[in-house]
User: Fold CRP-like cAMP-binding protein from Paenibacillus aceris.
Amino acid sequence: MVIPFELIDQWQQVLKYGNRQFFKKKSVIYRQGAAGDGFYFLHSGIVKIVASTSTGKERMLNIVVPGQLVGVHTIDRQTHFTTAITAKDSVLYHFSSERFKDLMTEQPELVHLVAQTIIQKMRVLLFAINMKTLSTEGQIALILLNLFDDFKNYEIPLSQQELANCTGLTRITVYKILRQWKEAGIIEMKERAFMIKRPDLLKGIVED
Assistant:
């Protein structure tokens, strides 16, 4: 859920109204099925959003980077339909439903910020649906391109197993494709991270 960059400064101005919380790596911020109360603003670190399927398997849906919101769907105290887990030590600011209600009265321009975030959330859901219409290579390429929009030239902190979980493919299938792309100079691979060197070639794979 990407917050438009021109709105990030507005969040910096209201963080003092939130409850600052520190989470160590691999900490659960909230769990799927638990009652929610407000949302979080990720100030530093990385958060993975995952969901459990009916068979009990865990699938990663999104990666949240600094400047984005976490759990915005529980502004009205709805139940969490995903689980949020920190991938690195992280600092988040929690805004309870009641506190944000007051802030919207004091700073009505924040209503626009929330609306933009909800629109982006719908885009992420559509992305997950449309991905299944692509080839195996296209599914992996689309996920990496989506993350590239957030990380640009930085490393994407995603392991091969996590990428497999995100696509629903086997780890062996993902490994073979990534190895081919590495040999072609499209990506660089580390133990638990990727760097995209040729996003244009990945885009071509998706379009084909």
The CA atoms of residues 30 and 84 lie 6 Å apart. The beta strands are 19-23, 28-30, 39-44, 47-52, 58-64, 69-70, 83-86, 90-95, 187-190, 193-196. The first helix runs from residue 5 to 14.
